[in-house]
UniProtKB/TrEMBL annotation:
InterPro entries: DUF3107 (IPR021456)
Superkingdom, taxonomy of origin: Bacteria
Name listed for the protein in its UniProt record: ATP-binding protein
Pfam families, alphabetized: DUF3107
Amino acid sequence: MAVEVKIGVHNATRELVLESSDTPKDIESTVRSAMSDPNGLLDLTDERGRRLLVRTEHLTYVEIGEPVERRVGFGTV
C-alpha cells in the first residue's frame, strides 16, 4: 500500500510529492516531531528508498493521503 504525501514549500511554485510505504499515522508522527524542533528537518523516504529532506522553517503545509493499494494490469477498473 502507498500513501501519497504532498508538501508545500515557501517560495516554490510546485509542491513536493512522494509516495511512502509508511502508514499515515507514522508520517504524521514524523512531521510533528520535525516541527517541534525550531531548527528541524523533515526527513521522509519514498517507496523507492529516495530521501526527501526539507527544513521545517520552509514548510507551508503537509497533506497526507489515505493508503491506496496499487492495481496493475489491463483488467483492473
